[in-house]
Amino acid sequence: MSAVIASSATSKRTASKEARRQQLIQATIQSIAKFGLSDTTVATVASEANLSQGIVNLHFQSKQGLLIETLRSVADEYKDAWEKALATAGPSHAEQLEALVNVDFCPAVCDRTKIAVWFAYWSETKSRPTYRKLCAERDRGYDRKLSELVKALIEEGKYQSLDADSITSGLSAMSAGLWLDLLVDPRGMSRERARQTCRMFLCQLFPQHFTPHAN
User: Predicted confidence band at 4 (pLDDT cuts at 50, 70, 90)?
Assistant: First the structure.
């Protein structure tokens, strides 16, 4: 019986530790969105979380460790989102491609706070190899799947003049540009308008697979 109680207590402590780490990561996201990456400190994170600075240091040892774990967390969240979108999409390549593109504008991903965080980290990738590596890992799997689906549609529709690599790069660049519009001009750009913009692009590229008026 004592062994069972001890195991239960250990499990609760582990769960509590993970919950606290997630609380601090969420506070870091809020701090970066408000103050930027360079002005986010242990103090600003502690304030956002309504916790002591000592708690931050206990769980992450340093500001840099916290920032790395925050980037890893949002990258993992993004990966989970697009993998889930593909798993629940229809069986056709067109349905899967649209589901993948739409992930960038779903509420869980296309949130102005998180967009601000992504741009903050991207701006530091040249001087921070760890950030660059994590951002590249985040993009690599998505871009690989995007390219596979684009190539499949080109083959299905016999779109002779289309280049899969250029289209993949164009779709990624379009999403990034629309994210920037959503960040700096939220009144002029919405998630739905961004999604429709990408869909119109797909309609122009793959007229046999996409029509302008479909949902």
Answer: very low
Q: Identify the architecture of domain 68-215 in CATH.
A: Orthogonal Bundle (1.10)
48's CB contacts (< 8 A; 6+ apart) are 27, 28, 30, 31
How distant, in Å, are the alpha carbons of 8, 188, 194 from that of 209? 54, 29, 20
- 8 Å CB contact between 145 and 86: yes
Report pTM: 0.84
Domain spans of the chain, in order of start: 1-61, 68-215
How does pLDDT run across 103-141, given as a tens digit for each residue? 999 999 999 999 999 999 998 888 888 888 888 887 888
Distance CA 58, CA 132 (A): 26
Pick from 28-32, 57-61, 144-148, 206-210: least confident: 57-61
On whether the 1-61 domain is CATH 3.40.1280.10, my answer is: no
In tens, the pLDDT along 24-63 reads: 999 999 999 999 999 999 999 999 999 888 888 888 888 8
Distance CA 9, CA 43 (A): 31
